[in-house]
Specification:
By secondary structure, this protein is α/β, with parallel strands linked by helices. The protein folds into 2 domains: 149 residues, 3-Layer(aba) Sandwich (Rossmann fold), CATH 3.40.50; 273 residues, no CATH class. The protein has 16 helices and 14 strands. The strands form 2 sheets. It has a 9-stranded mixed sheet. It has a 5-stranded parallel sheet with strand order 2-3-4-1-5, with helices on both faces. Helix content is 42%, strand content 23%.
Length: 429
Amino acid sequence: MEIKRDRYLNRLISKKNNGLIKVITGIRRSGKSYLLFNLYYDYLISTGVAEDNIITIPLDDVDYEEYCEPHVLYDYIKSRIIDKSQQYYVFIDEAQYAITKNEMKDADTPIRLYGVLNSLLRRKNVDIYVTGSNSKFLSSDIMTEFRGRGDEIHVSPLAFSEFYPASGKDKADAWLEYLYYGGLPHILSEPDDEAKTKYLERLNKEIYLRDLGERYDLRDENGMESLMKVIASTVGSLSNAQKISDTFKSSGDKSISMPTISHYLKYLQESFLIQKAERYDIKGRKYISTPAKYYYTDLGLRNALLNFRQFEETHLMENAIYNELVYRGYSVDVGVVEIRTSDNGKMLKKQLEVDFVVNQASKRFYIQSAFALPNQEKIEQEQASLIKIQDSFKKIIIVGGNSPVWRNESGITFMGIYDFLLNENSLDL
């Protein structure tokens, strides 16, 4: 089954031969390799590029294990570039395998892979593409190392607009399956629910936890798994290292210290398993450092961690909306609106929450996720924070199901989840 990922393919095409290293990042099994080695490879071939001029090196393949040594990797690539008059395309998949643990842990130890990439950059007839599943070493560091000569393309699991047509189901059934099993592309190839469940459980245990353990030299993988489950069970809730530590202590588990929790949260973000949404004071126009919200990059992995026992569509829908906004390239924060209220003549400060403050260039949207709006009281509750925002940016409440797009007398736009997810321009409706 071929799933067209035109958003990412078109971005790669637009960056072809631009003199920058194209760094394709994302969670493992999200489709980075397929995008590069299948979709983009086929595109290059269709434009007349010869197969010998596309040098593919999947470093997580045992057949290419020797090339995890940077100098061996460079010698091999150099041996393939035999004609200075021709353009060559170098694809290095899962490049973090060419970075040692010592290089990762010690900031003073130079990362030899960067030397390889730097040398390739000097060749005018070489176009470089690198994929990786760790942001620390394959996005921010590359951008710094090459002083603006790195160009990151972040690949998410399938958006619902990609998942739904490939699923062969109607909207409602596809949506429930998407919330339950997530958007990792291979899920659509599994024949039944049991196979889907086992696939996700295996990924959590054999890929993600193992990778975390090996990459970060974790002494306590059980502690990391426990933390992942806590984050999974509190999707959409404000949290920080202290609150998580208190959660462990209240359950009788005192084995994970608060500094360790902070490190583990950072590792999970760097590995793209979770994403952090900072709190933003809308009226004060400033960020609030803590607490924050954490969302799972893939809901199927989140559900599998919890043995599929916590399926609350309200929270999962909020997570799915967050993921969709990130997929569309928006910067997403959690909004806070501070108001003053009177209680028996005493003035009190109260904080109202806005689920998402969404920014892109000059655009801004304020968005609430509301699974159901059964009555006017619930509508008033959901729009309370939005009404208190004294600016002209669009305010939206996304509702579960097939709710039509409409706007009330307060200027709030209401739209159903399907309209939001399946129309790329839905926020402008």
